[in-house]
Amino acid sequence: MITVLFFAQLKEELGCDKLELDMPDGATVNDIYLTLQQHEAHWQQIFKDTLMLCAVNQNMADFETVVHAGDEVAFFPPVTGG
After folding, report:
1. Are strands 18-21 and 2-6 parallel, antiparallel or unpaired?
2. 10 Å Cβ neighbour count for 74?
3. For residue 14, how many other CB atoms are within 10 A of its CB?
4. pTM, rounded to two decimals
5. pLDDT tens digit string along 22-32?
6. What whole-number percentage of the chain has pLDDT above 90?
7. If 0-12 CB within 10 Å is exposed, 13-18 middle and 19+ buried, where does residue 26 land?
8. Which of 33, 42, 68, 75 has its CA 20 to 30 A from that of 60?
9. Nearest-angstrom CA–CA distance, 73 and 58
10. Are the C-beta atoms of residues 78 and 53 closer than 8 Å to each other?
């Protein structure tokens, strides 16, 4: 099982802050991203329209990062500040 976390505006738009997914061995962050697009009808548009960063086990990652059972994957929009 992989824990997927959502932060900031993404969490608000999805109406969810956490989800548990059972992914096959060798799955990547991109595989999770594509799976999430199919989770609920409105999620596909949110994931297509939102620029996202990701982290695996609290370390910045890219969409080609391989994940394993027990990992924590977080998605969040880019942060700007001033």
Report:
1. antiparallel
2. 22
3. 19
4. 0.90
5. 999 899 999 99
6. 72
7. exposed
8. 42
9. 8
10. yes
Residue 80 has pLDDT above 70, yes or no: no
The answer on pLDDT for 62 being more than 60 is: yes
Q: What is the 3-state secondary structure (H, E, C) of the chain?
A: CEEEEECHHHHHHHCCCEEEECCCCCCEHHHHHHHHHCCCHHHHHHHHHCCCEEEECCEEECCCCECCCCCEEEEECCCCCC
Token representation of residue 33: 């991203």
By CB atoms closer than 10 A (0-12, 13-18, 19+), residue 6 is: buried
List of long-range contacts for 19-24, beta carbons under 8 Å, 24+ apart: 23/67
